[in-house]
Amino acid sequence: MTAETARKRRVIVITDGDKVARKAVESATRRIGGRCISLSAGNPTPVTGKKLAQMILSTPHDPVVVMVDDRGAVGMGKGEQALWEISHDDRIELIGAVAVASNTLGAEGITVDQSVDRYGRLVDGPVDKNGYPEPPGNRYLEGDTVETLTQLPIPVIIGTGDTGKMQGADHVRRGAPITTQALLEILRRAGNNGVD
Q1: Would residue 196 count as lying in a domain?
Q2: What separation, in Å, do the N-terminal and C-terminal C-alpha atoms of the chain show?
Q3: Which of 29, 40, 55 is nearest to 195 (CA)?
Q4: Which of 1, 66, 85, 150 is deepest in the core (most CB within 10 A)?
Q5: Across the beta sheet with 92-100, what order do the strands follow?
Q6: pTM of the entire structure?
Q7: pLDDT along the chain (196 residues), means of 10
Q8: Residue 65 domain-assigned (yes or no)
């Protein structure tokens, strides 16, 4: 790792931002010892990429977890625009993303490195909104805000079902275990099981 890379703020992106997701992401981020930018939550994302970058850089340590959401908009929505902007900030390193499955109509979907299913298992291929592994042959995780992920320098993409939901499997009262595991897997692949 170079000195320049070491100075960058490490960020994990989650492609969901509604009220339920916000509580789950806050809980999961606490569990991994990271910092959650709660103001990034919203449906759609309420802050610009420039403002989001300022908040990321003002946090005392990383990893920093941010939420981006397009509220089902097809094409470049507010969440994707904010994500695009922070990904092109030289002071920020995107170490991974949690791609959240949804029932968004017209979504093309993306391939993921792996997914965490509703039972907490790391599986090859995508899962659906409720965290069930997709049938064999279905290669794409379909969800809001996910298509932009493949166009950005993000080294690992982990799929999950609907953040904080999955028919109770990721409920905040349980500590959002599926989201927590997805974040931990990204950290593991980044070569750090903890925080700076």
Answers
A1: no
A2: 14
A3: 29
A4: 66
A5: 35-36, 64-67, 9-14, 92-100, 157-160, 114-116, 122-123
A6: 0.91
A7: 65 95 97 95 90 94 92 69 92 96 76 97 96 92 85 94 97 97 97 58
A8: yes
